[in-house]
User: Fold this.
Amino acid sequence: MMIRKIAAVLMVCLLAGSVFSPLQAMVHFDLGGGVAMPTGDLNDYWGMGPVFSGTILFPATPFVSIGANFGFSKMAFDHDTFADAIGEPDLDLSGGDLSVLNVCAELRVHAGAMEMAYIFGGAGLGLYNIGLSDLTDGNETLEFDRENKVGGYIHAGFAMPITPMIKLGLKGQFNFYKVDKNEDLDEYFAETQNFFSLMGILIIGLD
Assistant:
């Protein structure tokens, strides 16, 4: 089911790209990596972790592009904070790390040509696949099923050219989605979750 949803999102993006790409010569890839930082209620029990992202963008106008984004983020579970929250500070916990995979359609607006410095902003909407690793205290293990949910993001950044076809820059992105409540943990973990990611980016233009 998840593969079908991903394939549907990609098909829409690629078909749209094939329609619009003749309007502007430059198709480009956006590759990023950095740190994911939980925000809101998610910040109560998880810490920072790595994030990776890849986007292919087809120009719709000289200043607007559409495309598809793939992302992976992982955030470590704070065992000590959670043990204190449930009133058992000596509890020996392991696991509980959060991982998020996403595939989204993206709309991006930018100022400046590929061979020049530019700023950009965008938004994405699509499928978020959320999972927690098994959480154990040595005697009992809680297992969690991965969930497929609709989610999205907004982002903004800038990039500077190092060659006419390659740029380096920085991008900040705010992600948001909802998860199903867990009957064992619903008083601790919120339904709505969000996190911020800060990434260095490499943009490669294609003729």
Observations:
- Confidence is low (pLDDT under 50) at residues 9-25.
- Residues 24 and 200 are 26 Å apart (CA to CA).
